């Protein structure tokens, strides 16, 4: 029902009516799962008030390398909130607004070991992002975005009292439909997608990296372009990862905790990063991500005023990072979001909203 409402709103915008492909059958099966997860989720926020919120999978992996004296500091024996919603107080205890990303090294891996990361230039970074995004039972066109990263003045919303760090703006200098599409695009799709030029994603981070504050801006006067910029922000966050100060080798892993945006909403993100291979002076990294909503609302275009009952966000990424480089030269990102939403107009009813994105990033050396 909600998916039909969203598709109706999309159709009202004009150009996407022929580009949007219904995925009702696919998402119907997933919706039952999301709805089932929503049952019994009440009280999760209250549970978060008293328990550490670190995802149990991440906590278990960290506890395997760091001894018992560190477990309580990282929440190694805690449980995440059952409904995926931290609440403002819980988020403040986990990572106060404006705080830099926190990194905890679980293992420095085997010899040989190298120092990852480098001083991050505020200018000169450029690359291409290919993004495929679907939301609310509909698929958007796959787009190729060329971007440049420049420093900017001012702080993203949510940076609070953060101290000065690296302020980086990813600006889209061109946008076009990708060669491979999930369906046939209308003739005017290329012109509409081109309006993404001038859109931007801003990250504020500490000198060592990691998201500290974030915002995005959509150009083109077409609200239906917003999910593509929101999805781009999620994908580009992979480029902002901090790296351990100590040298690391194959088998090393560490956890990063940061405040970010997902589905247009503030979240606390936990990432388990593993160095799976170190060969030819290039580190291959895998990243597993869990996110927890801070307030019970998301910001998807066309969604009515609502209260989120259940939120689940899981992601995986693969990065190739040359030793001594500030940023990966390539990245593949997959993210999935499952949300159970109760409209304010019908608080006794709930609707599952499924979103997913796939992105490929290529960075100029």
Q: What does the model show?
A:
The protein has helices at residues 2-12, 24-38, 44-48, 56-65, 68-74, 87-94, 189-194, 226-236, and strands at residues 21-22, 102-107, 125-135, 138-139, 143-151, 166-177, 200-206, 209-217, 253-262, 265-279, 282-293, 306-322, 330-343, 351-363. A hairpin with a 7-residue loop joins strand 12 and strand 13 (330-343). It has one domain (2-363). Strands 1, 2, 3, 4, 5, 6, 7, 8, 9, 10, 11, 12, 13 and 14 form a 14-stranded antiparallel beta sheet that branches. Residues 1-52, 65-78 and 156-164 have low confidence and may be disordered. It has 365 residues and is an alpha+beta fold. It starts with a helix and ends with a strand. Helix content is 20%, strand content 38%. It contains 8 helices and 14 strands.
Mean pLDDT: 78
What would you report as the Rg, rounded to the nearest angstrom?
20 Å
- DSSP helix fraction: 10-25%
Taking pLDDT < 50 over at least 5 consecutive residues as the criterion, the unreliable ranges are: 1-52, 65-78, 156-164
Number of helices: 8
Q: Report the span from N to C terminus.
A: 47 Å
Percentage of β-strand residues: 35-45%
Number of domains: 1
Overall geometry comes to: globular
Strand and helix order? HEHHHHHEEEEEHEEHEEEEEE
Structural class: alpha+beta
Largest sheet: 14 strands, antiparallel
> Tally of extended strands?
14
Summarize this, please?
The protein has 365 residues and is an alpha+beta fold.
Secondary-structure topology with pairs:
Blueprint: H1 2-12, E1 21-22, H2 24-38, H3 44-48, H4 56-65, H5 68-74, H6 87-94, E2 102-107, E3 125-135, E4 138-139, E5 143-151, E6 166-177, H7 189-194, E7 200-206, E8 209-217, H8 226-236, E9 253-262, E10 265-279, E11 282-293, E12 306-322, E13 330-343, E14 351-363
Antiparallel strand pairs: 1-4, 2-9, 3-4, 3-5, 3-14, 5-6, 6-7, 7-8, 9-10, 10-11, 11-12, 12-13, 13-14
